[in-house]
Amino acid sequence: MRKNLFLLCPTDCLESIVNNVFKHENYFYTSLGNSFVSDIETLGGIQETIKKHNIKMIYFVLSNDNEVILDALEGQFFSGITGLETFYGEIERQKEHSNLSSKTDDRQFAILSYYLNKKIKELRFQLRSLFNNPIEIKGQIYDRYDCTFKDIYPDLICLEKHYLN
Prior knowledge:
Elements: E1 3-8, H1 15-21, E2 25-30, H2 40-53, E3 57-63, H3 67-73, H4 84-100, H5 107-128, E4 136-143, E5 148-151
Parallel strand pairs: 1-2, 1-3, 3-4
Antiparallel strand pairs: 4-5
């Protein structure tokens, strides 16, 4: 049986939905808005879980109505919570970048895709030195209105501002 590690935001409450859709042996790590910092302690915990359970796939997942993301895009009432300052800055920068680009009609999906692609790149880089065989890492956005998981946009669509012509 395939074993997956899901990196989720606890405000999304997706654990039971994930278990119903992904009929595998699933493990979970949560942080607000998937904003976890890849420090030594966090990476050690993820590494231990991957080794102990022989995890082959990691998914970063956020819902399209994630409270923390929506707050970062609009009111920023949670901005005083320790560790969310950098996260809010990233979301704000991508919001500005998405206003410059007309690559997609769904700006929120594009912003979520950009953010999850960035987290995937960071984790992939950090895990590369810990494992001989690369672990596959994917991003998914749960559409609460359709009750479906959707693949995030590829990294080519989620460009940094300085990459745009």
